[in-house]
Design goal:
PRTase_dom, GTP binding, globular, binds uracil, about 30% strand, two-stranded antiparallel sheet, alpha/beta, allosteric enzyme, about 210 residues, Rossmann fold, binds 1-O-pyrophosphono-5-O-phosphono-alpha-D-ribofuranose
Length: about 210
């Protein structure tokens, strides 16, 4: 079954409080999501494999370490996932970025896919799917299916906030996908919003309503 990691670093938790606050405006919200994404990238890459490399320092020869293994692909779920891309790219600048466009039908809460564009070398990459919110789990579930259908084999899911309902869906549908969160909240309300959550992530990031 997928592991669930709640990244409890004090900087992540502190910034998340301001992200949740309804009095935080668009500009600050965007900056905070960017900062937390970079901090989460630091944690989610903790298990990247290393290999030894021999180099010359100005003083002597030294055997040091570099990252080995597959390259990374980031896949934000449009649109709110876009707010997390730049923060992650600051730490993983060589990552390629694919996009999966999905929105939740407000009546049925079912995800509707409208765009998929992934790096061409899918088999050579480990993927991190990113979206601030894991609510019913429908969108992330669909995005992961989309990636797997196209040949992705190693996938992690990174979200700011999840509801237990969404985590359960991913664990059932994708037991191979580990989940990285800044917070695991209480539940969903009748409209599929996460309680306490942060409201509508896309609207708060882009200033729409
Ligand atoms: C939000 C959010 C997730 C989805 C989560 O996107 O960014 O993609 O809802 O909900 P789920 O787990 O129940 O599927 P939304 O559908 O509002 O689209 P947007 O990013 O274009 O605003
Ligand atoms: N999507 C959001 O943006 N917020 C929620 O609380 C649930 C889904």
């Amino acid at each position: 079954m997928s592991n669930v990691f709640v990244l409890d670093h004090p900087l992540i938790q502190h910034k998340l409080t301001y992200i949740r606050n309804k009095n935080t405006g668009t500009k600050e919200f965007r900056a905070l999501v960017d900062e937390v994404s970079a901090l989460m990238a630091f944690e989610i890459t903790r298990d990247l494999p290393l290999e030894e490399k021999t180099i010359e320092t100005p003083v002597t020869e030294a055997v040091t370490k570099v990252i080995s293994g597959k390259k990374i692909g980031l896949v934000p779920i449009l649109r709110a996932g876009l707010g997390m891309v730049d923060g992650m790219l600051r730490l993983i600048p060589a990552a390629k970025v694919g996009h999966v466009g999905l929105y939740r039908d407000p009546e049925t809460l079912q995800p509707v896919e409208y765009y998929v564009k992934l790096p061409t070398d899918i088999e050579e990459r480990d993927f991190i799917v990113i979206d601030p919110m894991l609510a019913t789990g429908g969108s992330a579930n669909d995005a992961i299916h989309s990636l797997k259908k196209r040949g992705a084999t190693n996938i992690k899911l990174m979200c700011l906030i999840a509801a237990p309902e969404g985590v359960e869906v991913i664990q059932k549908e994708h037991p191979d996908v580990d989940i990285y969160l800044a917070a695991l909240d209480e539940r969903l309300d009748e409209k599929g919003y996460i309680i306490p959550g942060l409201g509508d992530a896309g609207d708060r990031l882009f200033g729409t309503k």
